[in-house]
Specification:
- The longest helix is centred in the middle third of the chain and has 23 residues, at 146-168.
- A hairpin with a 2-residue loop joins strand 8 (304-316) and strand 9.
- This protein has helices spanning 146-168, 274-288, 366-377, and strands spanning 200-202, 208-211, 218-219, 232-243, 252-261, 291-292, 295-299, 304-316, 319-329, 339-350, 353-362, 381-382.
- By secondary structure, the protein is an alpha+beta fold.
Length: 383
């Protein structure tokens, strides 16, 4: 019996089974571009039938060439099929191979419109074509000129010589090396002779003297009413009448005198105590010299010092000396004089002895005779 043909059942097809007759989708295939016909060609895995196998071309750039991504906004163009990858020429934009993303570390394209930089320094074996380069030569210190040392030495020697004369006195004056006063000044004997000066009046005991004053000054020996100077021994000097004697009134006179210091009335311990000694001499004079012209036993009324005393240290023929000057005032009915300028001084003789000098110029003749008396005191010397 011929049976009916049994219909052959076809195995159900698995919809998920791979379709080998379809072209596989390549992950790196370029996108289809309607303007590029080559982009519509199927991707070929192997060589064309009948063609020998060719190894794929490396997508890496030539050795030693850096990789450069295409400029931003430019599409990537793959090389023609079968053509090896060639790096673009220098100066041309470079693009990444297919499937390689743009590197963030790629160098920026070199602009083609800029000139090639030129080195500022000449190449090897080429002469320098620039200007002359100035050479700095530091100045050498010449130091201190030699003549400055010579002049300095001369000044020092001169200063030492002047100081020696100033301190020790001129040679032959008899001053010892250990003598010196706090504020030495010029020697009185070296001062110019005052106008009208006469002979040297010298104390016989000490040898101290001065050049005599002209008229109206007269020797003290001619004045019978002169009673001497307290603090001084026998004196030699002059006097000047400012008020003539009238009856019992002896009048008034100015006086300049030199003599030996009365060490019984004024203590003297040596040159180191000269200031104290001259102060004591002034006090001794004030206590015994100022007497009322009408009464020799009475002191002047309201006698007092005015202002502070001044001191001056001297060298008299190389010997240390000191002079003190001050003002005194009074108010006596027996005289028209109201004050005087007083000068006392001592000169060290060594061995505990000293000479002294005294001057008083009444106020009525101070302007006329004061400068003459000061000049005479500057001629003090040892005869």
């Amino acid at each position: 019996m011929i049976g009916r043909p049994v219909p052959q059942q076809q195995a159900p097809q698995d919809e998920t089974a791979p379709q080998y007759d379809q072209e596989p989708v390549q992950p790196f295939a370029p996108a289809h571009d309607p303007t590029n016909p080559a982009s519509a060609q199927p991707y070929q895995v192997g060589p064309a039938p009948g063609q020998p196998y060719q190894a794929p071309v490396s997508v890496q750039p030539a050795s030693g060439q850096p990789y450069h991504a295409p400029a931003s906004g430019q599409p990537y163009h793959a090389p023609a099929s079968g053509q090896p990858y060639q790096a673009p020429a220098s100066g041309q934009p470079q693009y990444a191979p297919p499937g390689v993303p743009e590197s963030p570390f790629a160098a920026a394209p070199t602009p083609t419109h800029l000139p090639t930089p030129v080195s500022a320094s000449p190449t090897s074996a080429q002469p320098w074509a620039g200007g002359v380069v100035p050479q700095f030569t530091p100045k050498r210190s010449k130091g201190v000129p030699g003549w400055i040392y010579v002049v300095g030495a001369i000044v020092v020697v001169a200063a030492l010589a002047v100081g020696a004369v100033f301190f020790f006195g001129m040679p032959g004056t008899g001053t010892s090396a250990d003598e010196g006063d706090p504020t030495p000044s010029t020697q009185a004997s070296e001062e110019p002779v005052p106008e009208g000066g006469g002979e040297l009046l010298t104390d016989s005991e000490t040898g101290l003297g001065y050049l005599s004053l002209p008229t109206p000054w007269a020797p003290l020996a001619d004045n019978a009413d002169f009673a001497g100077v307290p603090g001084l021994a026998e004196v030699t000097g002059q006097y000047c009448v400012t008020e003539e004697p009238n009856g019992d009134n002896r009048g008034w006179t100015g006086v300049v005198a030199v003599g030996a210091l009365d060490t019984g009335a004024v203590e003297y311990t040596g040159a180191d105590a000269m200031r104290n000694t001259v102060v004591a001499l002034g006090e001794t004079v004030d206590a015994g010299y100022w007497k009322d012209p009408a009464d020799p036993d009475a002191d002047l009324a309201e006698l007092a010092r005015a202002g502070d005393a001044t001191f001056q240290y001297l060298r008299i023929d190389g010997r240390r000396a000191i002079m003190m000057t001050y003002q005194v005032t009074w108010a006596a009915d027996s005289t028209q004089e109201t004050g005087a300028t007083v000068t006392v001084g001592i000169v060290d003789l060594g061995g505990g002895d000293a000479a002294a000098f005294f001057a008083q110029v009444p106020g009525s003749v101070a302007e006329e005779q004061g400068p003459a008396v000061d000049a005479a005191l500057l001629t003090l010397q040892f005869g």
